[in-house]
Design brief:
The complex is a heterotrimer of chains A (219), B (678) and C (321). Chain A has 219 residues and is mainly α. Chain A is 79% helix and 0% strand. The model of chain A has no long low-confidence stretch (mean pLDDT 80). Among the domains of chain B are: 318-554, no CATH class; 588-609 and 618-626, no CATH class; 632-677, no CATH class. Chain B has helices at residues 10-31, 36-40, 42-63, 86-107, 122-135, 139-157, 164-192, 200-205, 210-228, 237-243, 246-271, 280-300, 304-331, 335-370, 381-384, 386-399, 406-419, 427-459, 466-469, 476-494, 496-502, 504-511, 539-560, 586-589, 591-601, 628-649, 656-677, and strands spanning 67-71, 80-84, 527-528, 536-537, 565-568, 605-609, 620-624. Chain B is globular. Classes of the chains: A mainly alpha (219), B mainly alpha (678), C mainly alpha (321). Chains A and B meet through helix 4 of A and helix 18 of B.
């Protein structure tokens, strides 16, 4: 039991660390690599859960995470960046130091909140939920502190990693939901990709701030 | 009015006699203010009174008799209720040792240049006021002496009234002091309740309910906090403290802020009843922010005395964090940890009063010797003022919390309290404690940077002005005063364990428990927070080790080395430049810190004006800093008040009919209110 | 009485062991770097030769240097030496290990640093000032992270005394703890910054605007420089010992083991030190020096790691309660 906890704690904790690395990193390929690492960690965490709790259907979730988010999506994004010749530095709206401090505050908040609310729940659930909420919030933070559309996509995917972690911890979530979540993410990727291509075609940049200029109500 | 039996309370009687002596000195100086000889006698009398008072305070601290009686003075019928307990005695010791050293410094003042009728009569009066605040046994006495303390110190701040900065400082100080006292008045109103029990004993017997307690807490933090200099109510402090003569600055920064902390402790820990955990939140938040912010101000400032004043703001922040932790632990039922936090707080009050007084007296010596207190005009004073420099170094190391001096003892205890933070049952407090600890560590490191900068720029390097190059060592009494304080800093650093044992009854009273393992260490001087296996700091052993290893090194090196020393020009990588202006300046020293911390907090920006080739005008680097707190919380409301009063000004030019109409409508409004209310 | 004498003896061994072994550790690091750069490199004992040469040469002191400049090297070496004597190295529970805990240890090093920064400003040159100011800035970034590392230790072992922490970690069941790993990363980053190693500072440069430590000690020569160098080498040993004592305490002789077990303890300690020195050398050749204003982000990383370590430790404590 304790051993099971240690490994799942290790994997989920490393996922959280990866979220922070995403916030810290300012080179776009490194961001993709970290994202892939986070997805692989997620796959391992889900796989470990499936193994120790004898919930074989979770292996499917793990495999999905591994293939789609660990391999397919990073490779696709990588190719897209190369094809589009996107600027390789990530432009940040807020400085790295402040973003990291905000991230720490958000993590403290989510741990505090989950531990307080779920005092009666069983330990695996609490652990998973607490870390998952932190990862979700950090993904959102990444989306609002970055201006580059590619990193916003990564932020969104990382947020979704948190969702799957939460679903794994929550027990009793049917496979259908997970599969549909995975596919919706894939669809989201396509939407984003099309979106990015369109911005690129039109404004010669993937900086989402460029969109501000075409908004009718700003002038 | 019953007769007062002084023999039953010798300590209190001694204190009252000392206060009387202070009063005599003040009166004498006020009456004979035209005679410099009379003004000069103030300081010796103050020394006597302060020594007497300090002995009485010490006696009370050890004996812990806790006595009080009603004096037939002050307000009619109520009289003046004075009482003395260990808490008052502890802070009394801080006050009177501070006054003692400031007065010794005063003896050395230049009789023809420095003594004025605007300072000397008020110096003892200030001491009287501070002592009375500590002895007050009811709200009336407390508020009266609090206000007396504000007014006497205000007079001292504006003593150089021809200087526009002093006048501005005095103005801001007076406004803040008035608001602060009003807020305390409100707090005492809440404490007294509907029954109107203004005596502390009565309040203690019937503490207010939860909602009123919250209001009283807010009023107290605002009132006493603004006097102590907690951010964002600190704005007056860096203006007022440096404006006063240096020995008074020492008293204001080192001692008066502690009297304000006494007020806080008296109300929050003694009178307000059982604490609730969330009471600690404002203390922790304000304290941690103040500690870091105060030092960032200090490290970016270019005026020696203002840097010291800002560092006072920082230390008040540390004290607030200590108080917050003590409150939180006490409310969580962790009495031992509360005792550790409280011990840290009290020791820090004591330590800060010593090293801050020392630093201000040293700044006064520098100011006297060179006529300057801006970093741009100082430098190299270690050669011209060796004694002051050495003593100031002790103060600087103490305030930077470096062992083996006293600042580290309280800092160490405070960190131990922070490290006990994970034991909080309340998650908010538990998650806050590492953040608060990190802020404290940041403040400690910034303090070291700030005082390395201050000492390095003022005393080391080469003189930046002719005044600094021709400085003279300060007078003997002033050296004695500083040496006394430096000695206390060292002794306090070595024997912190002994001090903690001496205040055990006080900790029992305030935190609900004494330190659990005091005196159980391997040596009698070990400082132990919880138990010896958990954390320990044995300063004498460490100091002995330092001494041994230093001596060993010196012996070893001198045994095998050539011992040949040649004096030569500075190397400076082969490019020595004779002009002292090429040295690192104070603002270049703080540039890395400004870039790392200042861009967000102060909107720091550098404007470089680089002339084109061929243009003969000099290149210029301008640094712009913005004090957002001042603009938002002080300048904006002040502008609003002025705008409003301009509007109301038209009221002075109405016709009689309109005035009558105003009066009439006011009456109608009041009648309406009465009709609705009752 | 006999036991006290033994412990005193052990303490003395430790004091001189760290002092004697320190130059060799620096030598190993330099040698590793040289070999990875395909150079022959100086022999491992070169730092000893340098020190003895420096001690025997005459000392050139600037004309306007004060007493602080001349006495600071002794004090700096004394502070660093005492700090190094307090870290458990080959055995825990020696005579004076108890005298200060981790918080006091950090403060002792802080005192040495403040004195060095002051000495850098004493002659009044621009290089000295630049070094001092940057050193103090780096310290403000490193100290909060260091305190959080100590807090993580206190959380898992319940004490801030290093011998107790080491003994706790030796006896505790082997488990995978993310928080300890994160604390280790944070401590390593802090150690790199505190010892003026790449990527924060480059110990091998001169006349470069990015230097920090070397700029401060620029005016020193002869025996004074020897002491400063010895203190720097000692500090490196101290930090490696600290990391080893907290995260690899295996092989350390327990408090009551007596002098027999010390020999194996010393052997294990020396091996661990050498290993740390080699790792440091490998790290330094594989990474570039950072701009000085990027150091904030690097050390900010240490702070984040340390804080995350605490948060995860809180989580574990709460969940497994």
């Amino acid at each position: 039991m304790n051993h099971a906890y240690d490994v799942s704690h290790l994997l989920a904790g490393l996922m959280l660390v990866a979220s922070f690395a995403l916030l810290y990193q300012d080179r776009i390929f490194a961001v993709l690599n970290i994202f892939a690492a986070q997805a692989i960690l997620l796959a391992m965490a889900v796989g470990w859960e499936a193994w120790t709790q004898q919930r074989p259907h979770l292996f499917i979730t793990a495999a999905l995470a591994l293939c789609l988010k660990g391999i397919v999506i990073p490779v696709a994004l990588h190719k897209m960046i190369v094809r589009l010749g996107v600027h390789r530095d990530v432009e940040q709206v807020v400085g790295v130091g402040k973003t990291l401090l905000l991230g720490l505050a958000l993590t403290s908040l989510s741990l505090m909140l989950v531990l307080k609310i779920t005092a009666a729940a069983e330990s695996f659930t609490r652990e998973g939920l607490a870390l998952a909420l932190a990862i979700i919030l950090l993904g959102m933070l990444m989306m609002i502190t970055r201006r580059n559309a590619v990193t916003q996509i990564v932020g969104f995917m990382s947020l979704e990693n948190g969702l799957i972690l939460a679903a794994t911890g929550a027990r009793g979530m049917p496979l259908v939901v997970e599969v549909s979540v995975a596919f919706s993410v894939l669809i989201a990727l396509f939407v984003f990709a099309v979106f990015v291509f369109r911005i690129r075609e039109r404004f010669d940049s993937v900086d989402v701030e460029a969109l501000e200029n075409v908004r009718g109500d700003t002038k | 009015m019953t007769g007062v039996d002084f023999s039953a309370a010798p300590q209190l009687a001694g204190l009252l006699a000392a206060i009387l002596l202070y009063g005599v000195a003040a009166g004498f100086a006020a009456i004979f203010h035209r005679r410099r000889g009379a003004l000069a006698t103030v300081y010796p009398v103050c020394i006597a009174a302060a020594a007497m008072a300090a002995v009485a305070d010490l006696a009370e601290l050890i004996a812990d008799t806790s006595t009080g009686f009603r004096l037939p003075l002050g307000l009619p019928i109520i009289g003046l209720y004075v009482r003395l307990d260990a808490l008052s005695a502890f802070f009394g010791l801080i006050v009177n040792v501070g006054v003692l050293t400031a007065a010794i410094y005063g003896v050395g003042l230049d009789r023809n240049r420095d003594l004025t009728a605007r300072v000397e009569p008020f110096f003892p009066a200030f001491a009287v006021a501070m002592n009375l605040v500590l002895l007050a046994g009811d709200a009336f006495g407390f508020l009266f002496s609090w206000e007396l303390m504000s007014l006497t110190s205000w007079v001292l701040v504006v003593s150089r009234h021809k200087d526009a900065d002093s006048r501005h400082a005095g103005h801001v100080y007076l406004v803040m002091a008035a608001i602060g006292t009003a807020s305390l008045l409100f707090a005492f109103g809440g404490l007294a309740g509907a029954a109107g029990n203004y005596a502390f004993d009565a309040i203690r017997a019937a503490p207010p309910g939860p909602i009123v307690s919250g209001l009283v807490l807010a009023g107290t933090i605002f009132g006493a906090g603004s006097k102590a200099g907690i951010a964002p109510l600190h704005a007056w402090l860096p203006l007022a403290h440096p404006a006063a003569p240096s020995h008074v600055s020492a008293l204001m920064s080192g001692v008066m802020t502690k009297v304000a902390i006494y007020g806080l402790i008296r109300i929050v820990f003694d009178l307000l009843g059982t604490p609730v955990w969330w009471w600690a939140l404002p203390f922790l938040l304000l304290g941690a922010v103040t500690a870091v912010l105060g030092l960032l101000y200090a490290v970016l400032d270019g005026d020696l005395k203002r840097v010291l004043a800002y560092s006072t703001v920082e230390n008040i922040g540390i004290i607030f964090v200590g108080l917050g932790l003590a409150l939180a632990f006490k409310a969580s039922g962790l009495a031992a940890a509360a005792a550790v936090a409280m011990a840290a707080t009290l020791l820090h009050c004591l330590n800060h009063s010593w090293f801050k007084s020392l630093l201000f007296l040293g700044a006064g010596a520098v100011l006297h010797a060179t006529g300057r207190r801006d970093f741009g005009g100082l430098g190299g004073l270690i050669h011209r003022m060796p004694v002051t420099a050495a003593l100031w170094l002790v103060g600087a190391m103490s305030i930077s919390a470096l062992p083996p001096f006293n600042g580290f003892v309280s800092e160490w205890l405070l960190f131990q309290a922070v490290l006990a933070g994970p034991a909080f049952p309340e998650p908010v407090l538990r998650f806050m404690s590492p953040a608060v600890g990190a802020m404290l560590a940041l403040a400690a490191a910034l303090a070291a940077a700030c005082f390395v900068r201050a000492f390095g720029i003022v005393y080391l390097g080469r003189p930046r002005s002719s005044a600094a190059a021709e400085a003279h060592e300060t007078a003997r009494p002033q050296q004695v005063a500083m040496a006394l304080l430096a000695g206390l800093c060292l002794l306090g650093g070595l024997f912190g364990g002994v001090t903690v044992s001496a205040i055990q009854p006080l900790l029992q009273m305030l935190a609900g428990a004494p330190l659990p393992a005091a005196g159980t260490g391997p040596t009698p001087f070990s400082l132990i927070a919880f138990d010896a296996a958990r954390s320990i700091y044995d300063a004498p052993t460490i100091a002995l080790f330092l001494l041994i290893s230093g001596t060993l090194t010196a012996l070893l090196v001198h045994r095998i080395s050539s011992r040949r020393t040649r004096l030569g020009p500075a190397w400076d990588c082969g490019f020595p430049e004779p002009s002292p202006l090429t040295q690192y300046s104070a603002s270049s020293f703080s540039q890395p810190l400004r870039r790392v911390y200042g861009t967000t907090l102060f909107g720091a920006s550098e404007i470089i004006d680089m002339p084109q080739p061929g243009d003969s005008r000099p290149a210029r680097l301008t640094v712009r800093l913005q004090d957002y707190l001042w603009e938002l919380l002080y300048a904006a409301p002040a502008a609003a008040v002025i705008g409003l009063s301009e509007r109301l000004n038209t009221l002075q030019f109405l016709t009689i009919r309109r005035y009558l109409m105003l009066v009439f409508s006011a009456l109608i409004v009041l009648l309406l209110i009465a009709a609705v209310w009752f | 009485m006999g036991e006290t004498l033994t412990l005193l003896f052990g303490q003395t061994i430790q004091m001189f062991l760290v002092l004697l072994v320190a130059p060799a550790i620096t030598g190993i690091t330099r040698r590793t770097r040289a070999r990875f750069m395909r150079r022959q490199g100086a022999p491992v004992i070169q730092p000893y030769r340098d020190l003895s040469k420096l001690v025997r040469k005459e000392s050139v002191v600037a004309e306007n240097a004060s007493w602080l400049f001349r006495s600071a090297p002794y004090a700096i070496l004394a502070f660093t030496w005492v700090a190094a004597a307090l870290v458990p190295t080959f055995a825990s529970g020696l005579m004076f290990n108890w005298a200060a805990d981790a918080v006091a240890l950090v403060a002792l090093l802080g005192a040495a640093r403040a004195l060095l920064a002051l000495a850098g400003m004493d002659v009044g040159t621009s290089f000295g000032g630049i070094g001092s100011s940057r050193e103090m800035m780096i310290a403000t970034l490193a100290e909060p992270a260091m305190l959080l590392v100590v807090l993580t230790m206190a959380l898992s072992a319940g004490t801030t005394r290093l011998p107790e922490v080491a003994e706790f970690l030796i006896s505790a069941p082997v488990t995978v703890r993310v928080s300890l790993g994160l604390a280790l990363v944070a401590l390593v980053i802090v150690a790199l910054a505190e010892n003026a190693r790449i990527p924060v500072d480059n110990p091998a440069t001169h006349l470069e605007l990015t230097m920090v430590h070397e700029a401060m000690v620029l005016e020193y020569s002869g025996r004074h420089l020897a002491m400063i160098e010895a203190a720097a080498q000692l500090k490196l040993v101290l930090y490696i010992s600290l990391i080893v004592c907290l995260f690899l305490p295996f092989g350390m002789a327990p408090a009551d083991a007596g002098s027999g077990a010390w020999l194996t303890g010393i052997a294990a300690y020396l091996v661990k030190l050498a290993f740390g020195a080699v790792l440091l050398g490998v790290w330094e050749v594989s990474i570039a020096k950072m701009r000085v204003f990027r150091v904030g982000e690097f050390l900010g990383g240490a702070f984040v790691f340390a804080f995350l370590a605490i948060l995860l430790a809180f989580l574990t404590r709460e969940v497994l309660k």
